[in-house]
Write a structure and sequence with these properties.
The complex is a heterodimer of chains A (about 210) and B (about 375). Chain A has nine helices and eleven strands. By secondary structure, chain A is an alpha/beta fold. In chain A, strand 7, helix 5 and strand 8 form a beta-alpha-beta unit. With about 375 residues, chain B is of the alpha/beta class. Chain B folds into three domains: about 190 residues, BirA Bifunctional Protein, domain 2 (2-Layer Sandwich), CATH 3.30.930.10; about 100 residues, no CATH class; about 45 residues, no CATH class. Classes of the chains: A alpha/beta (about 210), B alpha/beta (about 375). At the A-B interface, helix 3, strand 5, helix 8 and helix 9 of A face loops of B.
């Protein structure tokens, strides 16, 4: 039986495919995918392309054995599977950002807009604050500009989008990167294969100059 | 008319083949427990929330409600702690052998395809401190799998004492110890290797390199354990595991046994050996159990040895083949023939009374449900 991988489609997929190829996995199907979602070109690994938040749904259910997904999603979803390897790609950072009028010391309960309510809650808990969280699905930068929220918690790679919207970083939260996640039972059922894959991925990182 | 006819999230109705399979599996397990002289124990589905305080609630989030005095009640998320509560309050004489069967309730992530009501069947041995307790559980685990048609099950042994004993012997601070433990348990290799690197040049170096992968074939894992410098407290743990592996080899020579010395124990209160079973294609363990001599200390001053085992009846049912029963016989009769019909029912295996009022209706039911019709109203039937 093939070992099934759920790979986050989009940017993660673009950054990870070279690593998978350098590890000896046939990704020719993913490179020329058209509208396909299932790729079985490789004799050992069957890859499916899914949205990031769905990776853990497949993995927790045991429908796939491995997942490749950003640590932002793992933390937001309180992942309990094994995040065994930092793939060293997709690096960015969570930040607290807002307009220049924002006063972090303001004496009232702050309103924070975010796509990541759990991470936001945990951050403010860790600094002893309680905030009101508004969940936003996209273009989070808008919220402080339009007056929906005092500030946002979001991920940023270079800060360009923030700067273009006149937002400043008020605090740097945890870093984010792409992880290889393994189902807790699958690691036992496919120990040899998974160990080989991890070792191949590490070699591929060295070869491609990706720092974990 | 009732408008909301939906099931609450995470629940399901069970009927037809699925219900039949689960009932059969439960009955097969109960028969083993009874045959080996265990006594039945039924505890209520509702308990005070406090009973489950010893549980790590990450995976056992219970449904909560309040009783008349405003005290928090839960639908039980576990069946072992109620046994401990019962033992500590009723003065039942020790040692005791209990078996139970029932449902546990755990609130899982909504809309994720997981079920919140699960059926378990298991045993608790209270008051037995020696390896004989573990071996009785393992014997039952193997018998249960074989009775319910599980072939090619992998039996996994582990021990709650191993990780902490090795960590205590490492030449590093307690903070480093607990960081290493966390990374080991999460199998976060990136963090783990960073910390383990600090001890690469010590006696522990070559062992630490392998530790996150310290599971699999029993002898292979034991060979890695031999790389450790002498830790006197570890010897009894290793001896128990070796003796148990040998025991299983005698009991069931073809049974595959693996050892995992890199995982946390299933719950805080585990104090010794733990065991679980899985198949190559399963996504859940079929059974899980172990020794938890600290179990009763949450409820009483006096410590009592305890060891137990629970089968996941849903996981067993998921992998059981759908039963192919021979077609049923449908007995059609006039109300005045009830006694004759009753006699026919008793004499015909796999039969049922047809309660339809006309022969036409009886024939229609027989055809649509693929049953054989036996018509007692016909002369000579």
């Amino acid at each position: 039986m093939a070992i099934k991988i759920a790979l986050t489609k989009g940017r993660v997929e673009e950054q990870v495919v070279p690593l998978l190829e350098a590890s000896g996995i046939d990704c020719s199907g993913i490179r020329n995918k058209g509208r396909r979602l299932i790729f079985d070109e490789d004799p050992v690994y069957e890859t499916i392309l899914v949205k990031g938040p769905d990776v853990l749904t497949y993995l927790n259910n045991g429908s796939v054995h491995l997942g490749i997904v950003g640590s932002d999603i793992l933390e937001e979803q309180n992942n309990t599977q094994y995040a065994m390897l930092d793939l060293g790609v997709g690096r960015c950072r969570f930040v607290l950002a807002s307009t220049s009028q924002f006063d972090p010391q303001q004496v009232r309960r702050k309103i924070i807009a975010t796509k990541y309510p759990n991470i936001t809650k945990r951050y403010f808990q860790s600094i002893g604050e309680d905030v009101e969280i508004i969940r936003i699905e996209g273009s989070v930068e808008l919220a402080p500009l339009i007056g929906l929220a005092d500030a946002i918690v979001d991920i940023t790679e270079t800060g360009t989008t923030l700067r273009e919207n006149n937002l400043h970083v008020y605090a740097e939260l945890q870093p984010v990167s792409t992880k290889l996640v393994v189902n807790r039972l699958a690691v036992k059922q496919y120990q040899t294969e998974i160990r080989t894959l991890i070792s191949n991925l590490k070699n591929a990182q060295t070869k491609l100059g990706v720092n974990a | 008319m009732i408008k909301n006819r939906n099931l609450p999230s995470g629940t399901r109705d069970e009927f037809g083949p699925r219900a039949a399979v689960k009932e059969t599996i439960s009955a097969q397990l109960m028969a083993i427990f009874k045959r080996r002289g265990f006594a039945k124990l039924t505890t209520p589905i509702l308990e005070y929330a406090d009973v489950f305080k010893p549980l790590n609630l990450d995976n056992y989030r219970p449904y909560q409600l309040l009783d008349e005095q405003g005290e928090a009640l839960v639908l039980r998320p576990d069946l072992t702690l109620p046994v401990a509560r019962m033992m500590s309050t009723t003065g039942v004489e020790l040692p005791a052998k209990w078996y139970y069967s029932g449902d546990v309730f755990r609130v899982k992530k909504q809309l994720s395809g997981s079920y919140n009501q699960l059926t378990q069947a298991g045993i608790e041995l209270v008051g037995y401190g020696s390896l004989k307790g573990e071996w009785e559980c393992l014997t039952i685990a193997l018998a249960g799998c074989s009775a319910t048609g599980v072939d090619e099950m992998t039996l996994e042994l582990s021990d709650a004492r191993f990780v902490n004993t090795v960590l205590a012997a490492l030449p590093v601070s307690e903070t480093t110890d607990s960081a290493l433990k966390q990374a080991l348990f999460d199998k976060d290799l990136t963090t783990y290797n960073h910390i383990a690197q600090l001890m690469a040049d010590t006696d522990f170096g070559s062992f630490l390199e392998e530790w996150p992968w310290l599971f699999g074939d029993f002898d292979t894992v034991m060979a890695v354990v031999q790389r450790l410098p002498k830790i006197p407290k570890l010897q009894p743990v290793i001896d128990d595991l070796i003796a148990t592996n040998a025991f299983i080899n005698r009991l069931a020579p073809n049974q595959k046994v693996v050892l995992d010395l890199s995982i946390p124990s299933p719950q805080q209160y585990y104090t010794g050996m733990a065991f679980r079973g899985y198949t190559q294609n399963a996504s859940d363990y079929l059974f899980s159990g172990g020794r938890y001599d600290d179990l009763l200390t949450s409820f009483q001053q006096v410590k009592e040895p305890a060891v137990g085992l629970a089968f996941d009846v849903d996981a067993l049912a998921d992998r059981a083949p759908t039963p192919s029963s021979p077609p049923q016989t449908l007995i059609y009769f006039q109300p005045s023939q009830w006694q004759a019909a009753e006699a026919k029912l008793a004499a015909t295996p796999n039969s049922t009374l047809c309660l339809a009022d006309s022969l036409g209706e009886a024939q229609r039911i027989a055809v649509s449900t693929n049953k054989q019709l036996l018509d007692l109203t016909k002369a000579g039937a």
